[in-house]
Design a protein that fits this description.
The chain is α/β, with parallel strands linked by helices. The protein has seven helices and seven strands. The chain is globular and about 50 Å long.
Amino acid sequence: MLSLHGKIVAITGASGGIGEATARLLAQRGAAVVLSARRNERIDAIAQDIREQGGRAATCVVDVTKAEDLRRLVSTAIDRFGRIDVLVNNAGIAPISPLADLDTEGWSAMIDVNLRGTLNGIAAALPAFREQGSGHLVSIVSVAGLTVSPSMAVYAATKNAVRTVHEGLRRESTDGVVRTTAISPGYIRTDLADSMADPHVREQTRKNMDAMGIPPAAVARAVAFAIEQPADVEIGEINVRPTVQA
């Protein structure tokens, strides 16, 4: 039977939404989790709750735009639990707006968090994976990159860039040491809309989430499925949408 017992998993953006749901589910299934985010009070509270329920959890304050923070996250996992088996790159923002709005600050922020943050995670985790002889990189991307909607061009571009990086890493890792999985959520009930600067886009996104969004646990189950596979099986990409989403 497939199991997560003994897996050591570090998760970025774990203070809420998909990251929190993933940490809780993996811990329930036997993994040790290291929660990271910029808000230390929130991840500390979640980790304490996990421990009170019999799970293993640690925390690390991380800003994914800072390479040294990701290195510290990997070091925390190794120092606390002896190794790092999986890095879940979940942190992301979506200050989306039409290109004509010329929100260059929002564009730069999405590039820094969504793309550069993932690259910082890869740079931090790969040496540890190689030294151990195994490791798994899971990144939360988006179905927005599969069908680009108005106002989402730059956001979709950052997510598709992560897809491209994943495929490149997969092609470079056919020695069986590193596995990669890209998971693309559709409408999930999270606070992602809070990062959207355009009030009309933000309100419409919230309405869509309320109308059709599914719980973050749906994505967490996809993460668990991918990482519980035996070492010779790689789940390359999973799309997780509400059944009513076009």
